[in-house]
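cache lookup: miss for this entity combination. No prior model stored, computing from scratch. Input as submitted by user K.M.:
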Amino acid sequence: MHRDAGVGHVGGNLSALDAMMLVHHEMLGASDRFVLSKGHAAGALYVTLWSRGLIAEADLATFHADGTRLPGHPPARGLPGIRFGTGSLGHGLPLAGGLALAARLQGRDGRVFCLTSDGEWQEGSTFEALIFCAHQRLANLTILIDYNRLQGFGTTEEVASLDPIGRVLAGFDVEIREADGHDLAAMRRALTPGTDRPVVVVLHTVKGHGVPALEGRLDSHYLPLTEDQVREAMLGVTGSPPTRESA
Ligand SMILES: [Mg+2]
């Protein structure tokens, strides 16, 4: 999809994909909600929704094209499983906190999952939302942090350090858990519901996970894949080179 569209953000999609798949396939019930705050991982979300039969395969081929239903960031309406347009970073947690409080006020069951990047914890609105969620003791809220330690312009440590983020957020009245974001068993343990407070799960991830040429590389944030990277990725995953070259 990203190759055909000629767009980047591949690294941050691959770091978040395992968590998104796990939540959607094993945890998300009809009354639960998922908010992708790091909207630039829309490609991974679309693939996840496709894998659950909520998006048609034909739609995937239109990713990022003019007139598509699948733009580069999640659209505000029109797709099942997506409730908000996101990707202006720092907006997802405020929305998720609102959903979690609304569920409680309406006496509804259901968990709310919010997947944030690590870089967007530099946004004030994310911290305002965390204060709100902790104060409201939204135990039905689980916040996942894709802690790949890279953001658009450098490592999180270089740009504006909150590292290690689990220790920083432990100062709030939330339950902090940590897990390898590519270890499904570890994530299953870490993503069990909270009891009396919001749960924050720091997922230790690798940007570009699964494609050695991208793993841990800053340029996997913005840059489109090269043909060599596409070939390596496809060989690694399927054992075969791409069936066609880019358009
Ligand atoms: Mg990051």
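stored under new cache key. The longest strand covers residues 141-147.
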